[in-house]
Every structure is written in C-alpha cells, then in structure tokens.
Amino acid sequence: MANPSVVQAGDNGASLVTSGSSCSPLGRGGTAGVNTTIGNSVVLFIYCSPGHPVTSVVSGIGTFSYIGSIATLGIQNPFGTGTTDVEIWGCPSVTGAAKTVTVSTTGANNYIASAYEIANASSLSYAGSNSASSGTNASLVFTGLTVGSLCLGLTNNGAVVSTAPPGWTSYNGSGGQFTYGNGLDTAYITAASSIETATWTMPSQNWYTIGVVALVAAPSFAPSQPPRSFTAVSRAANWMKRETGLWSPESGLRPRLA
Fold first, then answer.
1. Domain ranges in the chain?
2. Could you report the per-residue pLDDT of 104-159, keeping only the tens digit for each?
3. Beta-bridge partners for 92
C-alpha cells in the first residue's frame, strides 16, 4: 500500500469564525477547496479563544474526534494575551464528499481552523507538543515512527513569521504564516526513520509546537495456497498395469485392448 500523502491543505482565511458557524478550512486563504474523497483522512487544527476549548466538530466529511491539544501561557494570539489553546481533531476515515466544518466552543467564542486531507493513512495518532518562553528554534520531535508514516506539525510564535523546517514541506512555502497571520505555520514530512524533528527558526520569542502522525498501513499478504492433494503411484505399479492390461481410475491409464 502507498505511504500517506497530502491531498490538499488550507485555512479558513483572514477572519475569525464564530463558534457554531461553518468554515472551509481545506481551501487556501478561505477559498472553498474541493470536496474530500471517501476513505481519506482529515486532520483539523483549531486555534481557540483562551479558556474556551472545542466541544464539537460537525461536518459532512465524517466523524471528527479529539486527538490532542496544548494550552500555553504568554503566547500572543488573536484573542488577546493569555492562554492559547490549539486543538487537533481528526477524521480517520472520510465518509462523505464535503469541504466545510462547523466548530463549537465553550462560551460560544471565535476560532481559526486549518486542515489537511491525507490519503492512505491507516489511523491518526497524537505526536505530543513542546513550548518555551524564549529561543530562536521552535521544535517538535516525533518518535517511535514507522518509516513511511506522515508527520504533521504546527507552530505558533506570536506574530513572528517563521522559517520552515529544513527538509519539511511548509504550508507557507519557505516560511510565513496562515492567512490570518500570528506566526502560525504547519509543515509535514514522510518519516525516513523512527525519529523526525521539525525546527522552525525565528527571532527569540515564546513559542509552542504540536503534532500528529498519519500512520502508514501495515503490509498485507495473501495467504499461500495449500498444496494440492494427490495420490502417488509408483513407476513400478504403472509398468505392471501397462504390461498386464489392467486399469483403474487411480492409474489414469486406458486398458490395453487384446
């Protein structure tokens, strides 16, 4: 089976979205994007108002479940300084051709969303998070990987445009941020070993990272066919039947006519 690969990626655009309202996170810069393909997977990054986590994600794409989150003090965000809450929700198996999601949060606050559609993923797994109050390298280490799996990470560094991790494919190209701004970037790589590290560079600044892994499917093998059963007949027995003119169904020989 092929390795997991990105089909499309996007963000909801330059405006905050009201809790309970739908958006199109698969279209770049808030464009509509294209409908998902049944059987693929979708990873959804949701950037929430401080202290108002996500309560549900509803979509014609399929069933979304919570994967992981990080809440970090001191990171600047669109909703004011304080606790920033980024959550990862995932739909491991798309059941409908659609392109919008409706996110609801506690307190009916606003949100920003970014999504990746991924083909050939067997499942989605939380990869952990990292944060620091200062430094020029925002990093996230992915461990315990199966070669061929897809690592997908997000960074936020508070309105500072980051440089993409070397060797990784950045949503913003060589560096940049979501349409909304705020130093948000995502990047992905196909695992070549059991450990992969994403490192975004920037001026010294507080930052955090969070990630998810789209797992490669285990190889499947068709069961070997059992050996055919047969009755062994010795050469000597066949010679005797041929010479005497005897015949039986087991021998497979015709009787010799006188």
1. 5-216, 230-258
2. 998 878 888 999 999 999 999 999 999 887 888 889 999 999 999 999 999 887 66
3. none
Give the whole-angstrom CA distance, residue 80 versus residue 119.
36
Cα 239 versus chain centre, distance: 68
Q: pTM for the complete prediction?
A: 0.81
**From CA 256, how far away is CA 254, in angstroms rounded?**
6
Q: Are 124 and 215 in contact (CB under 8 A)?
A: yes
Residue 65 neighbours by CB distance under 10 Å: 10
8 Å CB contact between 199 and 163: no
Q: Of 19, 68, 108, give the one whose Cα is nearest residue 209.
A: 68
How many angstroms from the chain centroid is the CA of residue 222? 26
Q: How many other C-beta atoms are found inside a 10 Å radius of the C-beta of residue 55? A: 14
